[in-house]
Amino acid sequence: MKLFWIGGSHPRHLYYINTICKQFQLAGALIEIRENLLPQPPDGLEEIDHQNFVLHFANREKAEKKYFGEQPFPDCPIREVSHDTLNTSESVDFVRSHDPDLVLVFGSGMVREPLFSALPGGAVNLHLGLSPRYRGAATLFWPFYFLEPAYAGSTFHYIVSEPDAGEIIHQVVPALDAADGIHDVACKTVAESANQAVELLKIFDAKGKWETRRQKATGKNFLAGDFMPQHLRMIYNVYSDDIARQYLEGRLPRREPKMYRQF
Fold first, then answer.
1. CATH number reported for the structural domain that contains residue 192 in this entry
2. CA-to-CA dists, residue 116 to 32, 112, 173, angstroms
3. What is the pLDDT of residues 51-81, one digit of tens each?
């Protein structure tokens, strides 16, 4: 089985593929060099929102260092791309030169034409969010905002032209701990997804397929512009980033996801 990866350059993305590479050889990779993990606060924010924005992304960087450390690029032929050069004829040529059986996607921009049509039928995305309830952007943030942290998970699905809408292969949620903040749960989701990706690939290697489930058109497709710094007041000023604890103690409504799984 020849694997190819299309992914991002953040520690979480590299942790995912490096975990897989401990068990499976990677034929090649397109790696999109991503934005800085510490974005600048937008101008004109109230002081409370400025402070929350800085705190939120500083905590994210701290959590990723804790859970993922320094991650090297995988040991395989690599083509580095930007958001603008991901979906180009040069990327198409690079993928085709490795003739993969299965393409894994995690952390890049959306795969579009002409790259989309150049991928084999088995192109699998790891979406950080439980589709279809949480599709699109920031989908590990919104479950905390809506006070349902048990829905902070991931979905392995085949890619299609619509974001996060392909047939579901497998879904993952990490075990919540009372001490978990929002970024702990996000990092635990990635780590557990990486481990379960290895088991999924063993099934595919043995059987050549997975049993899948079509997505129903329920849930919301969150856009990047839906998130505003003011939303962080819910996390830090109302609940002091203690939502997981309050959920586990029964102080928030109990909402448990129904997931689709291979094992």
1. 3.40.50.170
2. 16, 5, 28
3. 999 999 999 999 999 999 999 999 999 999 9
